[in-house]
């Protein structure tokens, strides 16, 4: 994984405050016992968390799009010299560098796509857990306890 992909993971993971599997299981336990003090903060913070995550993903995609345009411009720009004039070594070096930059960009895109998938799964899980909590733990039921 490239440095850019690692930086993306750090950025989005910190921005998204992704829940671990242990956090999800703890939320399940809070729902099963109708522990409002443990469950409600997760649900009430959800819209802020989603907003931060959406902004971070948008900014990363915008950066990737900009780099793609720059790479395309480098690849297609007339450099004023004939490829034969560059020499085989210089041409091969330039092509390797362009391939390396393109690979790093592809790695960033894959990392972002993976995080979007994970975020979608997390959102679906939280939404289902919220629905289950509301059905299982109505407000009047906790007041009776």
Count, helices? 7
The helical percent reads over 70%
Unreliable spans are none
Radius of gyration: 24 Å
What's the topology here?
Elements: H1 3-16, H2 21-32, H3 36-44, H4 46-76, H5 83-86, H6 88-136, H7 139-144
Helix pairs in contact: 1-4, 1-6, 2-6, 4-6
Tell me what the structure shows.
With about 140 residues, the protein is mostly helical. It is about 85% helix and about 0% strand. It is built from 7 helices and no strands. Helix 1 packs antiparallel against helix 4 and helix 1 runs parallel beside helix 6. The longest helix has about 50 residues. It is rod-shaped. The relative contact order is 0.16.
Please name the defining characteristics of this protein:
0% strand; mainly alpha; 145 residues
Concise overview:
The protein has 145 residues and is an all-alpha fold.
